[in-house]
């Protein structure tokens, strides 16, 4: 190749031409392409070079087609490969027709159709496309051609360049670029065309014989700095879907901090430790004295950006928390000196390595992506089988120059030491501290550690289950109190769920018109499948508000706790489940150290369990509690006398919404038994359903019939109820449905729910219909009881009680650090 361009032209290129790079996510659909075209016109100079990746997930799609074809070669069934290829063709043609029109559309479509006919031919067994890199190259070729055409259509001088026409490399696991010949080829192509924006394919190059090669997954960042260094450009701008490099991956961590500047060594270390934000080879070709790399957002151009350059003299601080979910440890016998030497000389440096002298072992930690490469490499060098592979590890690292001197170093060490830490080490250049953990990583953990390192405000994600009366009332209360609630922690509602539909958004729901939004945005879901996903919600802490009456939800409490959620229940089903379920819930709750509040399950908003806990914490002992625990029963009996039929009262109460949908739930005293169990367990007593002596108001013969029929036959209970009333009157008393439990002298518990006759003047006989009353005897309150009474139901008081639980949780969590 001859150099036809003058030195002056070369110098002009170096001074004037900058490089821009757009990744696949910036080119995912027609809308993205238009945005990129606008950026290229407004933010790039008239002669700038633009490096592009394949649109969206095209590279993954191509790989899937190749795999399906290979499988087809074995099974003789190419159905899958055909389906995938058709989808890819549709996607690519869709982009073209959405973006182009007229002659340009015709010519680009024509070229694309030719490409796809080669693909179909290849799939049918024709040998036209020779190797995998050649197939992969199409992805970048299509995006470069399309973007150039879109610019041309908008009247901008633009063209595209297939990088294989100038970028030459020798084949190797990481292709070795032949710099001189590549530079010459590129300058030849562009220097004569000042004023044309060239779109260059990222990711690909060719060997000296013209065979396609690829630069490794996500290699387009590298292409961009390569191209930049070939023309000695001053700046390469990498446009991403994120506005620069942040203190952690913004897709996983909330409230990340943006980094205006990053030193080369920090950026390089971050890439080496596997962060997807920049490819590890990006920095290799860079002239660090001259070039600056800017990372900025193609989605929000106005946002800030990160400039990577020579900033090593700035005050050392921990900059980025980065994580790898899957790490493989290679354990090597230290006595095999040859093998150790091979590891030490290997080009691919481990995340970290260390020796355990006493066991004669060395460890080298690698990213899971390198496992295949390392396995193949070991087969060649490890003749004696002295190396073994251990999986099930994860990595957390904090990157920053002179990390050891930073304040965050100590915080990081402290945080990881509370995990299943296998090894903590500084990297040799002191640019990062790396922790290898023998456990799974989830975003909750990342968030927690991140907020310890970078923000002092912690966050709580709230999942609201149940959107009935209480759910709605609590949501409006929350909206009213939001500012106050957010004082202690950053609290956001991340989901509203009913039994079949959920509206979930980890960024936090906008609660204006939430009912309408729920109708529009809620999707079907399975609770049991959702729960294991929740640890990925980017919050330090998560809480589930169970505002249902559902057994199905209560049964999942162990799973909620095990996945890291705290629980606030208005639902009685878990607190009153049978002894074995209950103790399972408590065991898991303790094991995972989660909080569980259920203040509203007894007496709705009444401050009952605060009083009980306060007494107990101050040294008192509760001896007995009795009273009227059910608002429904209170209403029925306070209105009952010899003049009215009990059945009419039940009907009336049902109509007013004072009973359960099936009033038998109330009449059989189920609801009261639940409350009694919860109260007794709250003060540390062991009590189960079978231990409670119950006089149900529901005759057995009415228990199993359909609800309609029951409502019709309700008067069958009237006679018995009238007899009861008359019987009580004989001694000047009235019947009331009481619940009680008392600790006996031998420490056993006597518990009972049933009718008792109360003197007409007694306070238990003179409640406001619906009122609850709890009469508490303790060591200190033994002559006169402590009495708590008031409304025991109602959506507002219950919502308030739920809020009171949330406040308690917040102060507990805020204190916990
Ligand atoms: P491209 O569009 O260039 O292919 P990638 O998707 O490969 O971009 O890389 C960008 C992604 O890197 C972001 O979407 C983000 O989720 C992830 N990422 C991980 N760590 C960080 C970090 N510290 N700062 C910014 N982004 C990060
Ligand atoms: N398209 C290639 C890939 O997906 C290169 C890149 O995106 O940087 O790996
Ligand atoms: Mg990428």
TrEMBL record:
Stored PROSITE patterns: ASPARTOKINASE (PS00324)
Domain (Aspartate/homoserine dehydrogenase NAD-binding) ranges: 466-599
Cofactor: a metal cation
Key words, A-Z: Amino-acid biosynthesis, ATP-binding, Kinase, Methionine biosynthesis, NADP, Nucleotide-binding, Oxidoreductase, Threonine biosynthesis, Transferase
EC number of this enzyme: 2.7.2.4, 1.1.1.3
Quaternary structure note: Homotetramer.
Protein name in UniProt: Bifunctional aspartokinase/homoserine dehydrogenase
Organism, scientific name: Pseudidiomarina atlantica
Highest classification ranks of the organism: Bacteria, Pseudomonadati, Pseudomonadota, Gammaproteobacteria, Alteromonadales
